[in-house]
Write a structure and sequence with these properties.
CATH class of the domain at 1-134: Alpha Beta
Number of strands: 5
Strand order of the largest sheet: 2-1-3-4-5
CATH topology of the domain at 1-134: Rossmann fold
Strand content: under 5%
Helix content: 55-70%
Keywords: Phosphoprotein
CATH architecture of the domain at 1-134: 3-Layer(aba) Sandwich
Protein name: Response regulatory domain-containing protein
Domain Response regulatory: 7-126
Largest sheet: 5 strands, parallel
Oligomer: single chain
Modified residues (4-aspartylphosphate): 57
């Protein structure tokens, strides 16, 4: 098989690794190989060039590691669905930081590897793209139902196991994309009985959509799942714990996990869990433990410093109305000194964090109008759901309620496009917390559900409209216009009543004893 037309990218901080892989690829007749020493350099190239296969280093301890970068590039459509992502790593590695993308093949190349390992990847990729080219064409044009039909036509084809796996994964993810969760479950159950891991993870996501949290928790508790995927288990257990109103379990998860194995995104999630649970001593302890891990890396040490100051700013803003004037003045001076002392490093390594903290400091000093002006600027450029949620909350504190509500809706939309990784879990939990602060009363929450549903429908996001309408109905609203909107959304999405009944099921209360 000829590979000369393949376009390959290598992203690795180690020059020796790059040269070794380039030499092997050249021996296979591949001349279009581009190498990048940093994720940012690859990101610039990916926006201008299309790559068939991307080989990636698996380091996690950078402010924005390659797993985070790839998720962004997949989410915003920079990497086409035919791009294969290959993480080069040891078997017992951080590979499970990579989330499961709907249509991109995502695999591990165990280090050290041989020429034959490489040839296998090239063979599998070339044949997969050739066999499923019509389905991929439909996916790129967002014609998911057409792609599903194209793949169904191939179900009787005699394929090698890796192609059967790729076809089944695409079928399942297309069903999920279209909202056919019950059909996806029927397809997955026979595969999970054979202990196929990708199928078990897909079933986990299906059960999550079906609100079967008991099934989700049972899978995350399996010994093999915990051993092979400790990272995913960590953040999903936290998410399910919050969904079932069991913050004690989420806190226990954070305190039990080895802090040295936490990536920056996991560390942010851990701080958030402890902060909203008012475990302030645990927050300080976690930061001190992480300081020892990050002390040799100036960028990560600066990130840690920024997050610590940011939490102090948030604590002050949350308690500002109850503080005595003299105590508040002392606190203002302390925070100003902390921020001034670290300003140059934070601006250098974490400019987005600095901009947000700068606005928080304005609010602490009572400069609401200046803070609002700066927030308006930030709201025009922010695309990260977590950042948008913080902007919404700061607008709320500044008294700009219309802007706060608009940004919270924008964050909800951004979350719908986010891949299911630790960033999604962090942003999802933040959205829950800030939503309850902005919409404090049940009546205002119900109004928000209706408002969100209407705006989602107008923007053509019919599956999300169904979810929001169902949430509104489940909250006790009995409104003809809302029911009509639900029916219209169902029709536009090509779904039937049985496809969304699970969203209307009354919420159960779960109690879990944490040792």
């Amino acid at each position: 098989m000829q590979y000369k037309d393949l376009k390959i990218a290598i992203v690795d901080h180690n020059s020796d690794n790059i040269r070794f892989l380039e030499a092997l690829l050249n021996k296979q007749g591949i001349s279009h190989v581009r190498s990048y020493r940093s994720g940012s350099a690859f990101e610039l190239s990916a926006r201008q060039n299309t790559y068939d296969i991307v080989f990636l280093d698996n380091r996690i301890d950078t402010i924005k590691n390659l797993y985070d970068l790839v998720s962004d590039l997949v989410s915003n459509g920079t990497l086409p669905s035919t791009t294969r992502l290959v993480y080069m790593a040891q078997r017992q590695s951080a590979f499970d930081y990579a989330c499961e993308y709907p249509f991109h093949s995502n695999q591990l190349l165990e280090v050290p590897y041989t020429m034959q390992d490489l040839v296998t990847i090239l063979d599998e990729h070339t044949l997969q793209v050739k066999e499923f080219k019509h389905a991929y064409h439909c996916i790129e044009n967002k014609k998911y139902k057409s792609a599903l039909f194209k793949l169904k036509e191939l179900r009787n084809q005699e394929y090698p196991n890796y192609l059967k796996k790729a076809r089944n994964q695409l079928l399942v993810n297309l069903l999920l994309k279209l909202g056919h969760y019950t059909l996806a479950k029927k397809l997955l159950l026979p595969l999970t009985e054979r202990n196929i891991q990708w199928a078990k993870w897909s079933l986990f996501h299906v059960n999550y959509e079906l609100r079967d949290f008991e099934a989700c928790k049972a899978f995350l508790s399996e010994t093999q799942t915990r051993q092979d995927y400790p990272i995913r288990v960590f953040y999903w257990q936290i998410y399910i714990a919050f969904q079932t109103d069991n913050r004690e379990l989420a806190t226990a998860q954070v305190l039990a996990f080895p802090v040295e194995d936490m990536s920056p995104s996991m560390f942010r999630l851990s701080l958030m869990v402890l902060h909203v649970s008012d475990e302030l001593d645990a927050v300080d302890n976690l930061i001190k433990r992480k300081e020892r891990v990050y002390q040799e890396d100036p960028a990560l040490a600066t990130l840690l410093c920024a997050l610590s100051i940011k939490l102090k700013l948030l604590e002050t803003l949350n308690s500002q109305s109850k503080a005595k004037p003299d105590d508040l003045k002392v606190r203002q001076l302390e925070l100003k000194a902390l921020l001034t002392h670290s300003a140059s490093n934070i601006q250098k390594y974490c400019p987005e964090e600095f901009n947000m903290m700068f606005v928080m400091m304005m609010l602490v000093e009572g400069k609401a109008n200046e803070a609002s002006s700066k927030l308006l600027q930030l709201s025009q450029t922010s695309s990260d759901p977590s950042a948008i949620i913080i902007i919404a909350y700061l607008f709320h504190l500044a008294g700009e309620m219309d802007h706060a509500k608009e940004m919270l809706f924008n964050a909800h939309r951004a979350l719908g496009k986010q891949h299911r990784n630790s960033h999604y879990v962090l942003a999802g939990l933040m959205h829950r917390e800030i939503f309850s602060k902005i919409y404090k009363e049940e009546a205002t929450q119900q109004q928000a559900y209706i408002h969100f549903a209407s705006k989602l429908f107008d923007s053509g996001e019919f599956k999300d409209t169904i979810k929001m309408c169902s949430k509104a109905l489940k909250s006790g609203i009995n409104d003809k216009a809302l029911n009509d909107l639900l029916l219209r959304s169902t029709k536009e999405a090509g779904l039937k009543e049985q496809d969304y009944l699970h969203y209307l099921t009354p919420k159960k209360t779960f109690q879990t004893v944490v040792s």
